[in-house]
Amino acid sequence: MAQAAIELIGINKSFGAVRANRDINLEIVRGTIHGIVGENGAGKSTLMSILYGFYQADSGEIRVGGQPASIKTPNDAIALGIGMVHQHFMLVDNFSVLENVILGAESDALLKKSIAKARSELERLEREYGLEVDPDAIIEELPVGLQQRVEILKALYRGAEILILDEPTGVLTPAEADHLFRILKQLKEQGKTVVLITHKLREIMAITDTVSVMRQGTMVATRETKKTTVEELAELMVGRRVLLRVEKGEAEAGGVKLAVKNLTVKDSRGVTMVDDVSFDLRAGEIVGIAGVAGNGQSELLEAISGIRHAVSGSVMLDGRPIDLTGKADPGELRDRGLAHVPEDRHHVGLVLAFEENENSILGYHDDPRYLKGPLLNIEAIRNDAKDKITKYDIRPADCRLKTANFSGGNQQKIVLAREMEQDPGVLIVGQPTRGVDVGAIEFIHKRLIAMRDQGKAVLVVSVELDEIRSLSDRILVMFAGRIVGERGPEATEGELGLLMAGVEQREAAE
Amino acid sequence: MSTPYAKLPAWADYGLIPVINLFVAFVVAGFVVLLVGENPFRAAVILVEGAFGRGTGIAFTLFYATTFIFSGLSVAVAAHCGLFNIGGEGQGYIAGLGIGVVCLAFDSVLPWWLTFPLAIIASAAMGALWALIPAYLQAKRGSHIVITTIMFNFIAASVMVYALVGFLKPASSMAPQTRTFLDGAQLPKLNWVIELFGAKIRSAPLNISFLLALVMAYLVWLLIWRTRLGYEMRTYGHSSKAARYAGISEIRIVIIAMMISGALAGMMALNPTMGDQHNVALDFVSGAGFVGIAVALMGRLHPVGIVLAAILFGMLYQGGAELAFEMPAISRDMIVIIQGLVILFAGALEHMFRPYIQALFASISPKAVGIEAVKGKGA
């Protein structure tokens, strides 16, 4: 019988009122790929952070290779052969690959010797696992897929036998994700143990041997992947049946609400991010913009919502132009019925240090409903927040709780509730379900479709192809700042994937 | 993950932890006293008795605290908007110019209760104006507010020297200060309040501007947590991107916040000039603007905390003066060391003892840190 690489016995961990992990028991078999799925806030990340030494469990035992282990810091975890690849990469952007790999693990006081040693070690790792990266490339010049590879190399360089990957495919194209899975399989063949944390069930089915499901801080089930189905896992995660693809009727597109013409946007360095983009958004339809992250979608959204300066082109909202000089007042656009759910809810859409009710008026704090003479009408604001909490099922249902203490899915619901409840004519949404759990995804998708059915115009930008295909009535694909194609919702993933990778365009150019 | 620290009950968070920090600061200060060969226990007794032992001591403590409340509030208002105003010293100093002009012009014709509001307006306006230029440079040009405000402290000092050896000085006088204000610009003392409690006061400068400071503390609370402007300031202070998204103008909010901050700093000049010396003299601010930074940090940028921290610093000033007098081995500089230690432990190392206290609370009573609360509050 295979030996356990890691055993977790009776792990408990609380943050204030939240019991993030309760009585978790988990055994991860050596040489397997073990998936851990669960909704956001189910406690996956907390559990892995305990294993990696970021947090200390309140009680419980960790055994590594059969031996009881005390993991107080990430260094303890590394010494025990546990490596972690974080969702947000921990790389120094202006260092080379080699420098990043040895950072913190320099073998010698003189850098030159360490680098030479690392170079030969890196070559060996590359040969063994097919992890090709140019060791002298600068991180910021590498695509994200390769940056992630550097993170994996970092862990292996430190002698990791057990590799934990936290939501590794969030930033990858389908092709890059496939490549990652090939690498993971190779690692497994070499006897390494891989723990994959994800909320994407398809990935679990494709690559793992065993899968454990977490819900509300408890481990609800462990299954052999071969013997389970996506439907069963989804039900275990959420605790009830979920629709993985939201049902929706035909769109009844009306008049043009938002007309974008020849829009060109440059970033602060003068690089063209949005290149001559034109499209119409009609009432009663959802237009999805697909594309790999960083191909100008963010800048497009910001320009339309008046936050970012555009070089040329025009955007008409209900036939009246939007000021694209970067001096537009987003408050005025809100009054004109343009609501915006930004991609980055942590820094833009929300103030994490605020109480929930304070965030529920962000951008609408001028509304007379929330004011009482010169003062804020605290009572009205809180009652309003409570209504939204009930209506959008935001948990915990405490409008005085600090926003940072809500899970990602609930934070997103706070933003969506705020923007949707203003009854806007046009709703533009960036990454509606990034870092959001399955149950909440279903809820958010249903809401967006309900908006459409009420005759609102909805623009969705997402890097999740599934989401784009499930929501959109029309799909626009962005690559390198341009719209390289328009497809209907029936377009296949392969077709869109090729467009996203810029393949079709390149062929046309040749 | 969002909060690595479990929640403590409010009384422990806002009461117990500051007290422990303060205690440790005094223990370390005690060792310093020991080092210069004095008895730390006797020194502590002299310090506390000097500050609170007699009516006169209390009045002096509150007199010092008055200035610190203003300067602490000034720092806090800017800090809530993400701005570090270290120009309180200069804004307070230049406000003396406004006060001087108003008092010299009206002290012979108006009673104090008419001069006082005029002087309040003049001091606030001068302070706000002095903060306006750095604020504008920050908002429009991105010149860092820390650099510009500190440079404006030097400019204020030079302007005041120019004014005090020039037009503010009586022609016949050799001293760089205004003439003594007449009754019409002298603020009434508040010593009788302390005497109501049976304490005796010989002569102490505690005056009505202490009440103004308390009113301002309340207004600042109202501004920050109960007005739209305060909401916008806090939004900008936490995240300029979120503020942009919410349609809050960066230029407008930076300028307004700094002008309010400058106005509060300006008002601190009322206490030493109209309340105590009855003139405007060279260097009358004497560092109170900088103490405000420590007061604001220690008071956790909350008006209640600032009032308490200001009283603590008032105590260190008053008790420290007594201590320097009673124990010649302990100089004024030693007092500064003690103040520094208080700032270090209460401000910079604020979270040092927190994890231990949390562990203690969790082991004594899990309920106190809210572990059982999830069922009731959740879903």
Look at the structure and give the CATH class of the domain at 58-310 in chain B. Answer: Mainly Alpha
List the quaternary state of the chains. heterodimer
CATH topology of the largest domain in chain A: Rossmann fold
Give me the secondary-structure category of chain B. Answer: mainly alpha
The greatest inter-chain interface is formed by: A-B, 48 and 32 residues
Helix residue percentage of chain A: 25-40%
Structure commentary:
- The complex is a heterodimer of chains A (510) and B (379).
- Chain A is an alpha/beta fold.
- Chain A folds into two domains: 4-238, Rossmann fold, CATH 3.40.50; 256-349 and 424-509, Rossmann fold (3-Layer(aba) Sandwich).
- Chain A has helices at 44-51, 74-79, 97-102, 111-129, 144-157, 174-189, 201-207, 230-238, 297-304, 330-335, 345-349, 356-359, 378-391, 408-420, 438-453, 465-471, 493-500, 503-509; strands spanning 4-15, 18-29, 33-38, 59-64, 67-69, 82-85, 162-166, 193-198, 210-215, 218-224, 256-266, 272-282, 286-290, 312-317, 320-321, 338-341, 371-372, 375-376, 426-430, 457-461, 474-479, 482-487.
- In chain A, the strands form five sheets. A six-stranded mixed beta sheet of chain A has the order 6-7-8-3-9-10, sandwiched between helices. A six-stranded mixed beta sheet of chain A has the order 16-19-20-13-21-22, sandwiched between helices. In chain A, strands 2-1-4-5 form a four-stranded antiparallel beta sheet, with helices on one face.
- In chain A, helix 14 packs parallel to helix 15.
- The longest helix of chain A has 19 residues, at 111-129.
- By secondary structure, chain B is an all-alpha fold.
- Chain B has a domain at 58-310: Orthogonal Bundle (ABC transporter involved in vitamin B12 uptake, BtuC), CATH 1.10.3470.
- Chain B has helices spanning 10-35, 40-53, 55-80, 88-106, 112-141, 145-165, 191-196, 209-226, 228-238, 240-245, 250-267, 270-277, 288-298, 303-326, 332-348, 354-364, 374-377.
- Mean pLDDT of chain B is 88; it is low at 1-6 and 368-379.
- At the A-B interface, strand 2, helix 1, helix 10, helix 11 and strand 18 of A face helix 9 and helix 10 of B.
- Chain A: It holds the Pfam family ABC_tran.
- Chain A: It is found in: Cell membrane.
- Chain A: It is a peripheral membrane protein.
